[in-house]
Design goal:
Layout lengths: L2 H11 L4 H8 L3 H8 L7 H11 L3 H5 L5 H7 L7 E2 L2 H27 L10 H22 L6 H5 L2 E2 L2 H43 L1 H37 L12 H19 L5 H26 L1
Parallel strand pairs: 1-2
Helix pairs in contact: 2-3, 4-7, 7-8, 7-11, 8-13, 10-11, 12-13
Amino acid sequence: MTLGQKLKALLKDNRMTQEDLAERLEVSRQAVGKWVNDKGIPEVGKLIQISSLFGVSLDYLLKEDYEEQNASEEKAPSNSGYYVSQEMLEGYLSYGRQNAKYIVGGISLFVLSNIFESFGRNVIMSFLYWLTMLAGIIMIIWYFFQTSQYQEIKTEHLVFDDKVLEAFKSQRENRRKRYTVMIMAGVIILFTSSEIGRFIMVYFGQTACNVFEWAADTVWLALILWAGMSMHIDSIIIKNTEHPPKSSQMKRYRWIYMALPVTVAAVFIGMTTNAWSPYAPIIILFCCLLVTTCKLLIESRGKDE
């Protein structure tokens, strides 16, 4: 079988169209058409994506004399779950960490912007304050507008090769120890920063104290958020391997149900402890809701077309 014939068979077996494949690979429909008709060959990066997407090896895709039984051995039976190859697993983990960087970076910049208010209210400090805050908001909005990838890993019952799963579990345990240390460090910074701030205020003044406290708030929040999100990314793999996930059409927007009480709590904490501006949680919630609404409108339009 040629590469084009194999692509046609894989599309049929997975109930995908050429348009679906083009969207997944972020290429044009015409490019996929050339591949399935053997009028062109995907570049190496796209071949790796195809290999991960369908759970087949590069040898199977590229070698015309590759035995069909080898390919069938690589793929799990369709009724046993969604097969995840080593390449797809690594891609999912990399994609998840990249998204975590957008979220943690955006929130960190949002909190860190308050440092500039410690130096007094003037044109330069106000400019730097709003510039840093807007940079944080842009990072969060950028995350929401990213093309969703690896949705099958989040929504399907997963199947792995035994060696791949065992290696992942071993690496996960090592990472979990590191993330636990990060959370502990974040908690220590959270509870000791106020005392250290008082010491700095006595010897270096109020301005230095404010700068330190805002920097400390940024650090402990970033540590806890990064560790928590990273552990969640790993836990999805284990959970969906052991138990079939419950499907829900609006599952990815379930955070909205908790958004209001969390925002109220964050505003209350900001007002009583001065840990952050009371307006910050409201602005973040508004931006998230606005971007989510835009995504829903775009998706509904795409379905109508």
